[in-house]
Amino acid sequence: MLKIFSRLSFVLGMFILFGGLALSSVSVATAQQPAPNVDDEVLRISKDLYCPVCVGVPLDVCETQACVQWRALIREKLLAGASASEIRAYFIAQYGERVLGAPPPEGFNLSVYLLPLGVLALGAIILFFTARGWLGHPAGGVGAAPASIPPVSAEYAERIARELKARE
Asked: What domain range includes position 60?
């Protein structure tokens, strides 16, 4: 019985030893690799930025060596604790507003956002008045009485009556 107990304690001790080693290696491996949400954050930030070298290509899909380095820079800044707005401000300071997908809605750039709305409103007003003219509503509006019918001469009325009888 003592022999069984000593073997059982040996197996249990080895299990604890190997389990502890396995857990410590998992914690070391996870400490060396950044959290997966950092990669998602890098992609999210790089979608909003455009490659300063290539024209009209978002940073997240550009495969130039410069863009690969800029994505690595974004990753480093995120790991250092920088926020998305700080990283964006860094790229704007380095390369100008051309790295933005859209101009910021401030100052003269605000016209880029407001001008289409103004043109749309003007078009709606023109369409309203044009359609109103096409429908031919009298000046008094929709509910106004029709204009009086001009009198018809007796000769003309007689001629119409004869032509209608001839058709029958």
From this structure: 35-106
46 close to 74: Cβ distance less than 8 angstroms:
yes
CATH code assigned at 90: 1.10.8.640
Establish if 153 belongs to a structural domain: no
pLDDT digits (tens, 9 = 90+) for 33-69: 545 577 888 888 888 888 877 777 888 888 888 888 8
The verdict on pTM exceeding 0.90 is no
pLDDT for residue 125 is more than 90: yes
What single string gives the DSSP state of each residue in 90-143? HHHHHH-GGGBSS--SSGGGHHHHHHHHHHHHHHHHHHHHHHHHHHT--TT-TT
Query: Does 97 reside within a domain?
Result: yes
3-state secondary structure of 5: helix
